[in-house]
Amino acid sequence: xxxxxxxxxxxxxxxxxxxxxxxxxxxxxxxxxxxxxxxxxxxxxxxxxxxxxxxxxxxxxxxxxxxxxxxxxxxxxxxxxxxxxxxxxxxxxxxxxxxxxxxxxxxxxxxxxxxxxxxxxxxxxxxxxxxxxxxxxxxxxxxxxxxxxxxxxxxxxxxxxxxxxxxxxxxxxxxxxxxxxxxxxxxxxxxxxxxxxxxxxxxxxxxxxxxxxxxxxxxxxxxxxxxxxxxxxxxxxxxxxxxxxxxxxxxxxxxxxxxxxxxxxxxxxxxxxxxxxxxxxxxxxxxxxxxxxxxxxxxxxxxxxxxxxxxxxxxxxxxxxxxxxxxxxxxxxxxxxxxxxxxxxxxxxxxxxxxxxxxxxxxxxxxxxxxxxxxxxxxxxxxxx
Amino acid sequence: xxxxxxxxxxxxxxxxxxxxxxxxxxxxxxxxxxxxxxxxxxxxxxxxxxxxxxxxxxxxxxxxxxxxxxxxxxxxxxxxxxxxxxxxxxxxxxxxxxxxxxxxxxxxxxxxxxxxxxxxxxxxxxxxxxxxxxxxxxxxxxxxxxxxxxxxxxxxxxxxxxxxxxxxxxxxxxxxxxxxxxxxxxxxxxxxxxxxxxxxxxxxxxxxxxxxxxxxxxxxxxxxxxxxxxxxxxxxxxxxxxxxxxxxxxxxxxxxxxxxxxxxxxxxxxxxxxxxxxxxxxxxxxxxxxxxxxxxxxxxxxxxxxxxxxxxxxxxxxxxxxxxxxxxxx
Lengths: 385, 330
Hints:
heterodimer; A: alpha/beta; Rossmann fold; five-stranded parallel β-sheet; 15 strands; B: mainly alpha; 76% helix
């Protein structure tokens, strides 16, 4: 056994050495800064961390498609030359952290876009902030993310902005005073959505009749819905992801609950209509992205995206698309690929016009914009009036 | 020179490999008495949460937090081990699986302490805390010519390496001791072992508690390396992942789970170049392994063969020397 132990140590040692020496060849010093002043273009390496394999690969695909489409257009304009280096995180914190380290240290990127999940962001962002690498989330909506550090940004609107908008429009229109809350308590996203709902209800002086919870993947919501029905609310605030949310609406309508539902950003998906059909009517959500808008910029983006990838862009694609444009704008103003210069330029972003609308960053690096309130009527999303 | 050699990316991957080795050891100990546990993710979570909560809320030093996390997990192991002793094989697996889920649901619902599904962020990071501590004593990364994030990665890696080597050597020694022999006897045949006068209850609970302690320890280290934990990190998937280290590498000898952890953690990183296909290749390797070596890659036979090979070689050199001496003599 002594030999086995020695052999093991040897294996570990060899492994360590191999990896250590492998990095010797790879790492280029970040000292050389190209500002390519010759033809006025700035060359920049940007790292992307996205969820490309596994259960959430659909999100990652939409996001990377958004980046690529934006990048081709930006390259055509010729002011900024961005090289995107994409790494997969498989939705796991460890992998997200490893790929961030790879991008920062082996690839020497000037900036990181992503990762996809808020949980991943909470692990990656402190490391990026410590290394002085600006990082921008395009799909991370949980609270407390831009507050991690000076180098941390996001252009996805947090629940704390989306939900109040949806709730106040609904309260105004239906003159609601009493609400019931239903939320998924085992998911970061739906839980932080609930925290916002509770706060909004308090602020607006709404009476919360009952608060019910459910778990991811649950199939039967009759127990919770019966309780809610008995209390006769004017509105139901429901913090759910679309797959559970659609089933909840379906069962509620069958039970005879016909009051409107107000949902968070995760509830906002065309899938709701596909799953729940007519039962989906009366869902109110606030979202940064409305693909049916008349705006010319939005329509060109939708057409181009459809032509390239064969399906309608969702909010994740749109947020990614805008994020790269915001970044390109910041790089142009910074005029170099220096990490600090890009950070400062990003922080100064104000009144940027994208497909999502007008965007600015506040002093913490969080997005400031007006979300659109949408409702499902006659089987499709329409602006809520 | 030094600055170019140290890449935090590789050190990061190595650190996760080392944590997974510790997890692999934890499942190996429980398996060495023939107990199949799927509750190791739960123990890992208990270690992680305990350490995170005491270091954040009560400002205890990291090392105290990590040890406390391991101890609490170990004690829970005893509590779970005692009543589940009667269960064997699949039944034990199901009971421990239930325990793991209970722990996860507890983390979700005990919001005052664990912040529910949102998880605990800004947990003190081993490396960052150490570097700040060193700065107070007047030592900075610049003095040896590296950046501070490099120093952080190096420190984390070295600490984990030392801890892992200590753990491995302890369990290798235990395997050759009275306790290890008792474990092996119980694994072979419980009734026969009892007839030989081995206190089965004691040794089975000991193995279970040791496994829980080590898993809790790994969990605490994990919490202080990623600086963020949430209940979903310790779900059923994690339990299976830990078990696969032992199933893949082999659970008969300690080298098995260690190899399994190294291989299965580095594989997704090494396959990064083929991006979308990496998990497909990973899956194919797993399936192929199960088809061709169901007992795991490294088992007793392999170790014996290796030993015999080495002995033969030694024998050969001795023979050669002997014959040479004869030649000279004649």
